[in-house]
Amino acid sequence: MYVIKRDQSTEAVNFEKIAERLRKLIAEASLKGIDVGRVTQEIVTNMSDKMKTSEIDTLAANVCVAKQLENPEYERLATRLTVSNIHKTTDACVMETYSKLESVLDRTFFDFVMMHGDALNAILDPERDYDYDFFGVSTMTKLYCAKQDETVIERPGHVYLRVACVVSRYNLDKIPETYDILSKKQAVFGSPTLFNAGMRTHQLASCFLMTMDDSIDGIFECFSDMAKVSKLGGGIGVYAGDVRSRGAPITTTNGKTDGLLPMVRCVNSIAQYVNQSSKRKGAIAVYIGIDHPDIVDLLDIRRPGGDETKRARDIFLALMVSDLFMDRLKTGGSWSLFDPFECPGLSDAYGEAYVSLYLRYESQGKAKRTMPAQELWERVCRAPIGSGVPYILYKDSINEKSNQKNLGTIKCSNLCAEIVQYSDSQEVAVCNLGSVCLSKFVSRDTSGAPTFDYQRFMDVVYVMATNLDSVIDANYYPTEKTRRSNTRHRPIGLGVQGLYDCLVKLGIPYDSDEAVGISRKIANAMYFSAINASCDLARVHGPYETYRGSPMHSGQMQFDMWNVQPEPGVSWSLLREKVAKYGVRNSLSIAVMPTASSSQICGNVEAVEPITSLVYVRRTLAGEHVCLYRPLVDTLIEHGLWTEDLMNEIIRANGSIQHIDSIPEDVRRLFPTAWDIKQKWIIDHAAARAPFICQTQSMNIFMSRPTLKAVAKMHAYAHAKHLKTGMYYMRTKAAASAAQISVSKSASTMPQMTQTTVQNELSSLSDDDESVCLNCSG
Q1: For 725-740, what is the mean pLDDT?
Q2: CA distance 63 to 59
Q3: Which of 160, 240, 436, 552 lies 20 to 30 angstroms, CA to CA, from 253?
Q4: What is the mean pLDDT of residues 497-517?
Q5: Burial state string for 288-300 with b = 16 or more CB within 10 A and e = fewer than 16
Q6: Catalytic residue selected from 418, 567, 606, 770
Q7: What pLDDT is recorded for position 773?
Q8: Residue 352 annotated to the active site
Q9: What is the predicted pLDDT for the residue at 759?
Q10: DSSP letter assigned to residue 617
């Protein structure tokens, strides 16, 4: 049997050469407990004749990663094999790398690299490419490293350098700092920025919010805007609640409309057809008000089975819920549904103005349908049990506590329910996203106790906020409406990821008052630093165009609109004085978004959520991998408890350790999964952060066996906390069993698969869900 070397020569398979390569990588990383002979034997056993050496490295990595559950060091070796293989098949030199990609690059970026190649090479640190886990580097190379004829050209470090050049506006003094932050995984930008920075069509924004006018021209103009945005990788939220309902008159033809459902099915077809350059499907959330008569028709659009002419399963339904409806619900009152054509203005009003208009229409007998509020709410609460949606957002809270309230009424959010910005027929709202990796800021104090480094965290937030503002100017806009909105209001969305990892490092259980306090302090520090950065930008460039008349212009910060006091420790009074003098450059700054793919490359638990399972199979666009939560394994190793039997016991427990008595109680307390905790803790965390989140938060809810009563109670609790987003997506456990993985040392290149009773929390999000989160991933 022969192998093809990298210089295209052939030679006979040499068992010892393979073993020696493994030993070298093991020594470089000081790995322990790896059976080189066993791994080498399995590699040779699974080889085919005339394999390329690069393919052998890939095979070797797969052999190693399959053994990670018996010893985490195997996963580290798999990572080193993968990165070493990438380094052997790519150029280290940035000029050589981007010369190969010239045809797809933005001319400004290409010329900059050619002119300053030596300086850029000096910035690069190739060793940081090894600071991934196997799943992270696999996702990085699969999704973000530029390719030519399906061959990877960029190294991971090149991606970060490319992004740093663009967001730093080609300033050689600033590029190193941004590159360091990205390559050390202290923060990361949204997926479109990683995809497209420096590319010929540099569309770097993640989120787009639009409204649909109630006319044939308005509807199809909106369809066109959707297609243009989706083509370039943007996730879309569209408000369709102004379109007249089923049976409403069409005055020009003396006919009657078929309502929202056929129109939403057209939107579904756009999402399917405009598939974002084959990277992933288009992703669109359709928003309506809870007072729209077609709400009942739309609640089942994603439900499995049923009449296919009434389904639109690639669309995500979202409801804008008023406080008046929640009041009617509490008092057992009725709820009236009004056609927006016959009863205009409800979508443009909130608070007392909405109540006044609603009651006037109701008193005039203009309701198209009236039903008990409880009956409608039961239908709303039943829908996510089967489909995960609708998203629930609270219209009054969004508008009463928005720094964009001077622009008009905000009618919808984005694809993942964390961006709330004004849009209308002339402006499509845009947001550029990034997230800061919280676990990177946990250090040890002089006594050796873990502590959170708030100052370093704020420094990174400052740089990221400044860079996100630069993205607004660097961005390619799909339409004039998007350019107009983004350059006038200059919103950004900076969030966080890895809260669960951060709390584990600090030794604080997620479901505790202390953890909720940490969430609040982190959000406080983040908001302060982002506003400080925005003010410093305004000092140089002036405030954003529509700043005058905004709450910030009148001295109101986000927490003032919540009537709460900020956390001490930073100089809010001095910042207020500075803002009063110079203004701010960005109308909005903070949003907590999903961070699916970026959390994967950075090795964090997604966003601010608790982990869903401690041992599971991860299935995404980057492939399928067996994963384990490394901090738990490291903790169990420290306690001398990590064994094959314990590992399989955790798997039999569906990735939870809460009922495994052999694990100490303090360890169990530190590592709950999302299914182990009361969902009030997720809402409490969100409520603690909320006064410092000037946009909103994408908040998943996890219910293993949801009931109408439990879902309704959860919504009531979130509304009582005055949240802007009451629920993004409801995650539930499947009723059917799924395959469980058990591992034994007799396994070959992949773990043995046995059919036992285990819920699908051993799997991550489906590919569909991953595609959605990928749009907003920051």
Answers
A1: 75
A2: 6
A3: 240
A4: 98
A5: bbbbbbbbebbbb
A6: 418
A7: 57
A8: no
A9: 33
A10: E
| Predicted confidence (pLDDT) per residue in 43-66, tens digit | 999 998 889 989 999 999 989 988
So what CATH class is 195-629+671-778? alpha beta
Q: 64, 165, 343, 416: which is the annotated catalytic residue?
A: 416
Q: 723-732 burial by CB neighbour count: b if 16+ within 10 A, else e? A: bbbbbbbbbb
Residue 741 Cα distances to 28, 78, 658, angstroms:
31, 20, 19
pLDDT exceeds 60 at position 304: yes
Amino acid sitting at position 726: G
- pLDDT, the chain, mean: 92
Per-residue burial over 750-761, b if 16 or more Cβ lie within 10 Å, else e, is: ebeeeeeebbbb
Q: How far apart are the first and last CA of the chain?
A: 46
Structure tokens at 100: 């190969």
The region of weakest confidence among 346-355, 391-400, 637-646 is 637-646
> How many Å separate Cα 689 from the centre of its chain?
17
Distances (CA, A) of 679 to 669, 685, 705, 715, 760: 16, 10, 13, 11, 19
User: Does the pLDDT at position 155 exceed 70?
Assistant: yes
Contacts by 116-123 with C-beta closer than 8 Å and gap 24+? 116/172, 117/93, 119/172, 120/94, 120/161, 120/165, 120/175, 121/92, 121/93, 121/94, 121/95, 123/161, 123/175, 123/176, 123/179
Residue range 424-445: mean pLDDT, rounded: 96
Confidence band of 337 (pLDDT split at 50, 70, 90)? very high
| Sign, Cα dihedral of 510, 396, 245, 377 | positive
Q: Which segments of 680-743 does DSSP mark as H helices, in order?
A: 680-689, 708-720
Q: From CA 173, how far away is CA 167, in angstroms rounded?
A: 13
532 is catalytic: no
DSSP code of 142?
Answer: I
Is residue 765 predicted with pLDDT exceeding 70?
Answer: no
DSSP class per residue in 68-131: TTT-THHHHHHHHHHHHHHHHHS-SSHHHHHHHTGGGB-HHHHHHHHHHHHHHHHH--GGGGGS
Local structure of residue 309 (DSSP, 8 states): G
pLDDT of residue 66: 84
**Cβ proximity of 185 and 125 under 8 Å:** no
For residue 403, indicate whether it is catalytic: no
Q: Tokens for 507, please give them.
A: 């030794």
What is the C-alpha radius of gyration for the chain, rounded to an integer number of angstroms?
Answer: 27
Q: Where are the domains of the chain?
A: 2-87, 94-184, 195-629+671-778
Over the stretch 550-586, which tens digit does the pLDDT of each residue have? 999 999 999 999 999 999 999 999 999 999 999 999 9
Could you tell me which residue, 759 or 158, shows the higher pLDDT?
158
Gap between the Cα atoms of 656 and 573, Å rounded: 46
pTM: 0.94
Task: Give the separation between CA 339 and CA 256, rounded to whole angstroms.
Answer: 13
The pLDDT assigned to 737 comes to 42
Please pick, among 71, 399, 403, 414, the residue that the annotation labels catalytic. Answer: 414
